[in-house]
Amino acid sequence: MNNGSNFYALLNRMKYIERWSLMRNSVPDNLIEHSYQVVYITQALCLIKNKLYGGNVNVEKAVSIAMFHDASEVITGDMPTPIKYNNPKIEHAYKEMEALAESKLLEMLPDFLRDYYAELISPDTSSEEYKLVKYADKLAAYLKCEEETNAGNKEYSVARDTTFATLCVLGAPEVKYFLDNFTGGFFKPLDVLK
Questions:
Q1: Measured between alpha carbons, how far is 162 from 90 in angstroms, rounded to an integer?
Q2: Model confidence, pTM
Q3: What are the backbone dihedrals phi and psi of residue 30, each rounded to the nearest 5 degrees, phi first?
Q4: N vs C: which end of the chain shows fewer Cβ within 10 Å?
Q5: Total Cβ atoms within 10 A of residue 117
Q6: Chunked in runs of 10, what are the mean pLDDT values of the chain (194 residues)?
């Protein structure tokens, strides 16, 4: 058996990283499932922006960034938001830890792949594509909170309200369009979705 790079094998372990670890969950959420949701929401936001609001976003690039947006957490684990942003020192230390984890992941790759993945794992945070991934990540968090509160889990009600308020003040018409036109279906019974 070849003992080459373990990059993809490590990414496969994203399925073991549980999200929302400090909260009681009606529906468990892991990093690989979350990443897929962020991928398809990112794609939707890009298409909405390009088709309805005159955007010129590279959809494939944004979707690729979304695919790897939390890849460093396979090394760091998922840090709960209330802890991560509780204090500037903790936030700074976590960002340093994320950067080290990103570097570690990239070092696992053969040279000929490293540059390609560097743009996805450590993307330009000022790019429009990255911003849409962040919006999609926030939308996924909102959907999780709404799903939990709809299942009777009141523990998520504050996070839901805070996340929704954040989405409403982004000033991103593509996010508003997604909220207005697509989120309602997430909370309907299966028989109604057909």
A1: 21
A2: 0.94
A3: -115, 170
A4: N
A5: 18
A6: 84 95 90 98 99 98 98 90 83 91 97 97 97 98 96 95 97 98 92 85
Domain 7-193, what fold?
Answer: Hypothetical protein af1432 (1.10.3210)
Q: To which residue do tokens 């805070």 refer?
A: 162
Residue pointed to by tokens 């939308």: 139
pLDDT in tens, 136-149: 999 999 999 999 99
**Measuring CA to CA, how many Å separate 141 from each of 53, 56, 110, 114, 188?**
24, 26, 34, 30, 18
**Tens of pLDDT, residues 155-171:** 999 999 999 999 999 99
- CB burial of residue 79 (10 Å; 0-12, 13-18, 19+): middle
CB 53 within 8 A of CB 109: no
Distance between CA atoms of residues 72 and 103, nearest Å: 9
